[in-house]
Amino acid sequence: MHKALVIKVAIILGLTLGLMVPLGMVSQLIDERAARQEAVVSEIAASSAGAQRLIGPILVLPYQEEFTQEYWEKETIDGELKRVRRIRQVKVDGRALIMPSSAQMQFDGRTSVKRRGLFKALVYELEGGIQGRFVIPAQPALERQQENSHIQWGQPYLSLGLSDTRGLVRTPQLQWDGTPIDFAQGTLLDPTLPQGMHVPLPKLVQVGQGRASFGDRAFVDGADADEADADEAERAPREIPFSITLAFRGTESVSFVPLADSTRIELASTWPHPSFQGRFLPNADGQMIDADGFSALWEVSALATAAPANLRADVAAGRVCLGGCADWLGVRFIEPVNIYSMSNRAVKYGILFIGLTFAAVLLLELLRSLKVHPAQYLLVGLALALFFLLLLSLSEHIAFGLAYGLATLGCVSLLGYYLIAVLGSVKRGAGFALLLAVLFAALYGLLMSEDAALLMGSLLLFGLLALTMVLTRRLDWYALEKSVA
């Protein structure tokens, strides 16, 4: 029994495996270009403003707790070492954090592209503001070191965290209970929120044991009210409205941390390809995406998030915002087609394409009693491997779909022209080129339909196997071994 067919199949398999080397080189090049793209995004963010996260506003009430503390001290008395009880005055600094009772954020944005050579980064600018109310309790909740200690209130301030303050387009403005107040640099909540700004507010007025009120009008004066009214006023919380106008830039994504009892966020942009992220998705009836951009609405209740409690814990522990910044929501401005991820996915199908092409040539060779040299198989395989390099290089200059079409046209035309001579017939060469065009079209469908890629790929392989089995169902393989010899 002649073994020529087995030997030839083994040679073709060896060539197929050998062509994994150029495919691997193309895949490595794609990874290098993708890494360079990420580096360019980081460089642009480092020189302008990175991804932004807005946290707040937060009302901070600094205080100093004073109390006496007993302790034991060893002293030498009459020549003997004895323990003596002493009393000392202790002062401990603390901060009480009050979150808004309601906050409505509304921002409109536009996007643009910044380039460095062939690589680019998507940047945005948002403009809008925050409106809401704070409810200030007459007796804020404090973590006292000792009961009945004396509380001395400091200068309160409003903090607003922004992850990269270089992105501020103009100085933010605050309206506090109808009074305009300028922002200052820093949140004064280091290290929990190292980036951001704050606004000094009117000083607190002492009201009884640990009680306080904003402004020059103390509730306990009693000048305009009797004692009962004054006592009731002491216990009544005060509601203060506020509004902040804010405009800032960022790179690729923006997110928000909902801290209010009731948070409402409206975000709109001219970018038509948003990717909503975080712990909360927009309301289904408040989300709209079309060719002109997108708009989204989030509504988050304090019952649905632990962000306020976790932020207080982070500030008290003096650590970077961890749990308090975990419950965030936002959007990423993504490219509709990432050329490097698409090229990388295409290369993964490269060995399959080469194998199917070699199998088709071999089948045609056997059915038509042709002679195709292994060197010719190698040239066909190299042309297929070169397709993926053409796809990568073209897609860096033109749209991915157009790049894919041009690379396919070049590769199919070259192989069709070459196979006319190899297969000895214009009809065979053109038919084979048409088959390759169908395979490339199927690959493009796989790349564009990521969710259905597995299904489409399975159906494609099943169809090709079924076609092969139908065409070779009456083939005498033993007779072919003699003809190949």
From TrEMBL:
This is Inner membrane protein involved in colicin E2 resistance. The chain crosses the membrane at residues 346-364, 376-395, 401-423, 430-447, 453-472. InterPro entries: Uncharacterised_IM_CreD. It holds the Pfam family CreD. The lineage of its organism: Bacteria, Pseudomonadati, Pseudomonadota, Gammaproteobacteria, Chromatiales. GO terms for cellular component: plasma membrane. The keyword Transmembrane helix applies. It comes from the Bacteria. Keywords: Membrane, Transmembrane, Transmembrane helix.
